[in-house]
Design brief:
150 residues; six-stranded mixed beta sheet; 5 helices; 6 strands; 37% helix
């Protein structure tokens, strides 16, 4: 039996997309001035959940208009995300490889060793960091790297 999640307005979906049956969802908050996106993922995702998330994130990125600088600074908190199926990990890898989702810097926050391994595999080649604390992730995101030759 399939039970659909209630229809939400766009602003409600951007703030928090939850399917109460599976307790799977996401929130996307953004700060245009700092070109910063904070994402929270939780639960056990399906490929369809990733597609809904992807559509919402692309909408946020378009509205932010930070693509000219290499994308926003992004923290993705997955501390409440379940260990995912191999099919879903593969789909996350495809999502992360898509140049439309590029972030200037991308930090994942998790405390789980297995989640860390899944994230490192899915984000290979992205230059992403997997960090255990949100404050540490923010420090890394907003630290200006020295310019070569200076």
């Amino acid at each position: 039996m399939t039970i659909a999640c209630p229809a939400l307005t766009l602003s409600q979906r951007l703030r928090l997309h939850i399917c109460f049956v599976t307790k799977t969802g996401f929130s996307i908050d953004h700060d245009v001035a700092r070109e910063f996106v904070r994402i929270r993922l939780f639960g056990f995702f399906s490929v369809g959940d990733i597609e809904r998330f992807e559509a919402e994130l692309l909408s946020v990125h378009r509205r932010m208009g930070s693509g000219h600088r290499g994308g926003p600074l992004t923290i993705t908190d997955v501390t409440e995300m379940s260990i995912q199926s191999q099919e879903v990990v593969t789909r996350w890898g495809e999502f992360l490889a898509n140049p439309n989702h590029r972030s200037r810097r991308l930090a994942f926050v998790t405390g789980s060793t297995l989640a860390r391994m899944q994230l490192e595999r899915a984000s290979a080649g992205r230059g992403a960091r997997v960090i255990t604390e949100v404050a540490e992730a923010e420090r890394w995101l907003f630290t200006v790297e020295p310019t070569a030759g200076v």
